[in-house]
C-alpha cells in the first residue's frame, strides 16, 4: 500500500533500503501490558522473565547504574510487565565495539538501542535482529505514539525491524534571533518577509544601532562546518525562505523527486544571499564560523542584529555570558521565520528518526511480546510519563497547583550529581515537551512553543540508500557545496547556473543519482 508522502534529508551513510511499507503477517493475538497501573500490567504475565537491555540511548553514559532497591524507574518497568531487567550502559565511544563483541560471542542482549538506521539494517542483515511486523498491531498505543515518518525509518525490506527510540528535538536550536532594542531605536518593525528582513539587516549594518558612533555592527552572520557544508549554520535557514536547502534535500512532488539543491528556486535563494553579501550586511567573519561556539561568541558580543541560534540562549546562564562578554544583555527576541515568496515559512525540517529499539532474533515469541509490552508502557503510560521524562517525584518533579512541575533547575549541584542515573530512562520525553527542559526564562518556553508551528515535515530523501556503485557521490556533494558558496559570494556569477547543472550531469553523473532515487522511491511506494 502507498503511504503518505513524507519529507527528510539524505543520509549518505544509510545502509539497506528502508521502505514505507508496513509488512503483513500472522498476528499474535496477545494484548499489550501497558496500562495506567504498573501492577495491573504485571498480572497479565504470571511468569517472571529476565530481559537484558543494551542501552546506548542513555542521556548520560557516565552515570553509574544504581542498585535495584534505589532504582525507582527500573522497579516500575519490572513491575509493569513482570520482568527482571538487566541493563547494560556502554561507555561513551565504546558502544559499537562492546555490542559487536557481545554479538560475536553469541551473547546478544534481548533489547538493543541503536543510534542509526544503518546499524539497524546492518544487524538485521547479519541475522541479529527479529522481524517485529507480526506483533506490532497488538500494540496500538505504541504505534500511535510515533508518527508514520518515525515508523518508516524503522522499516526495512518491507518489514518493521525496530521501534522508534526517542523523539528528536525540533523547534529550539534553529530559532530566529533578532535585536529588538535595535529595531526600536531605528523605528523598525519585526520583519515578516525576505525583503523586509533585508531592509532590517541593511539598517542594522549602516545606521549605528548601538549608538557608539562606529561602523562596527552587522545585520547577519552565519557559517559553514569544517567540511564546507552550509547546513545548520544559518545560511540554510535563509534558503528555506525559498523552499530549498543545500545537499542533499529531496522532495517528492507530482509523482517525481525534486532535488531541492538544484531546483530553480535555489537560484533565487542564492541571489538573495548574494545580495546580502554585496550590500555587506553579512559579518565578514562568517568564513571562519565553523563551530557553534564561535557563533555563540558573536551572539554574546552583541555586534550582530540577526542570527539563527538556539532558543536556550535566552536562559539566565547565557544572558550572564552576554553581560560578561558584551557588557550588556541585549534585548534579543525570537521571531517567526520569514514567509517566503512561495509561502514557505520554516524554522527547520523535522529531524530524521535514526535511533531505535531492536529485539534479538534469539528472543522467542513470548519474550518479544513481553519486551514490546514494556516499551508500550514506557512510552505511552500517562501516569508513568513524568517518572521517566523528568525523574523522581518529590526531587525532580512534583504536583504544583494540580499540574506537574519540573523542579530540576532548582536542584543543587550535589543533588543533581547524586541522581545522574535518571538520565538512563529519559527516552519517553516528548520532543515538544517544554516542561521537560525546565526552562528558567518564560521567553524560552514561549519561543520553543511558537517554533513548533514552523517545523516542516521531514523529506523522503533520508530513506534513500547510498549506491555502492556510485563512485562519484562524495565528489558530487563536495562540488555542489563549493558551487553554492561561490554563487553566494559572487565568486561565480549566477549567470553560470546552467553551466553548474551541466557540469553536474557530465562530470559528476547526476543522472545516476536521479535514477537511484527514482528506483528507491518506487520501491518505497512514494512514486508510481
UniProtKB/TrEMBL annotation:
InterPro entries: Bact_solute-bd_prot1, SBP
Membrane-spanning ranges: none
Keywords: Cell membrane, Lipoprotein, Membrane, Palmitate, Signal
Listed Pfam families: SBP_bac_1 (PF01547)
PROSITE patterns registered for this protein in UniProt: PROKAR_LIPOPROTEIN (PS51257)
SUPFAM superfamilies xref list: Periplasmic binding protein-like II (SSF53850)
Name of the protein described by the UniProt record: Extracellular solute-binding protein
Protein's organism: Paenibacillus marchantiophytorum
Amino acid at each position: 500500500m502507498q503511504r503518505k508522502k513524507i519529507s527528510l534529508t539524505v543520509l549518505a551513510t544509510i545502509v539497506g533500503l528502508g521502505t514505507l511499507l508496513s509488512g503483513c503477517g500472522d498476528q499474535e493475538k496477545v494484548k499489550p501490558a501497558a496500562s495506567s497501573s504498573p501492577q495491573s500490567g504485571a498480572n497479565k504475565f504470571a511468569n517472571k522473565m529476565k530481559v537484558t537491555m543494551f542501552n546506548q540511548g542513555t542521556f548520560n553514559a557516565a552515570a553509574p547504574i544504581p542498585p535495584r532497591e534505589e532504582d525507582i524507574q527500573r522497579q516500575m518497568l519490572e513491575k509493569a510487565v513482570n520482568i527482571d531487567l538487566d541493563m547494560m550502559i556502554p561507555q561513551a565511544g565504546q558502544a559499537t565495539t562492546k555490542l559487536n563483541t557481545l554479538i560475536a560471542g553469541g551473547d546478544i542482549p534481548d533489547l538493543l538501542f541503536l543510534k542509526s538506521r544503518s546499524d539497524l539494517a546492518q544487524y538485521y542483515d547479519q541475522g541479529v535482529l527479529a522481524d517485529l511486523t507480526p506483533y506490532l498491531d497488538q500494540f496500538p498505543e505504541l504505534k500511535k505514539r510515533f508518527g508514520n515518518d518515525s515508523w518508516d525509518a524503522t522499516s526495512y525490506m518491507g518489514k518493521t525491524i525496530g521501534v522508534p527510540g526517542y523523539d528528536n528535538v525540533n523547534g529550539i536550536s534553529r530559532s530566529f534571533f533578532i535585536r529588538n532594542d535595535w529595531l526600536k531605536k531605528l523605528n523598525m518593525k519585526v520583519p515578516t518577509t525576505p525583503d523586509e528582513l533585508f531592509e532590517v539587516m541593511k539598517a542594522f549594518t549602516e545606521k549605528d544601532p548601538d549608538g557608539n558612533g562606529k561602523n562596527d555592527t552587522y545585520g547577519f552572520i552565519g557559517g559553514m562546518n569544517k567540511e564546507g557544508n552550509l547546513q545548520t549554520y544559518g545560511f540554510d535557514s535563509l534558503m528555506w525562505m525559498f523552499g530549498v536547502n543545500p545537499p542533499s534535500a529531496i522532495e517528492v512532488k507530482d509523482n517525481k523527486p525534486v532535488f531541492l539543491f538544484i531546483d530553480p528556486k535555489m537560484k533565487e535563494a542564492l541571489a538573495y544571499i548574494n545580495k546580502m553579501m554585496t550590500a555587506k550586511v553579512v559579518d565578514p567573519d562568517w568564513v571562519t564560523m565553523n563551530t557553534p561556539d564561535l557563533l555563540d561568541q558573536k551572539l554574546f558580543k552583541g555586534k550582530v542584529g540577526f542570527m539563527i541560534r538556539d532558543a536556550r540562549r535566552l536562559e539566565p546562564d547565557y544572558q550572564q555570558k552576554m553581560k560578561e562578554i558584551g557588557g550588556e544583555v541585549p534585548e534579543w527576541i525570537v521571531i517567526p521565520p520569514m514567509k517566503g515568496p512561495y509561502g514557505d515559512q520554516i524554522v527547520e525540517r523535522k529531524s530524521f528518526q535514526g535511533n531505535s529499539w531492536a529485539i534479538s532474533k534469539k528472543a522467542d515469541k513470548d519474550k518479544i511480546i513481553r519486551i514490546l509490552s514494556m516499551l508500550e508502557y514506557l512510552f505511552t503510560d500517562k501516569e508513568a510519563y513524568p517518572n521517566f521524562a523528568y525523574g523522581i517525584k518529590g526531587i525532580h518533579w512534583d504536583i504544583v497547583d494540580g499540574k506537574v512541575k519540573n523542579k530540576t533547575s532548582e536542584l543543587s549541584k550535589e543533588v543533581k550529581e547524586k541522581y545522574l542515573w535518571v538520565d538512563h530512562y529519559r527516552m519517553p520525553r516528548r520532543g515538544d515537551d517544554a516542561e521537560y527542559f525546565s526552562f528558567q526564562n518564560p521567553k524560552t518556553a514561549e519561543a520553543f512553543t511558537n517554533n513548533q508551528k514552523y517545523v516542516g515535515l521531514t523529506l523522503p530523501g533520508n530513506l534513500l540508500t547510498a549506491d555502492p556503485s556510485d563512485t562519484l557521490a562524495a565528489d558530487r556533494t563536495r562540488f555542489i557545496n563549493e558551487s553554492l558558496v561561490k554563487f553566494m559570494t559572487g565568486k561565480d556569477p549566477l549567470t553560470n547556473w546552467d553551466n553548474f547543472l551541466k557540469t553536474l550531469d557530465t562530470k559528476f553523473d547526476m543522472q545516476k543519482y536521479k535514477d537511484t532515487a527514482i528506483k528507491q522511491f518506487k520501491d518505497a511506494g512514494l512514486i508510481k
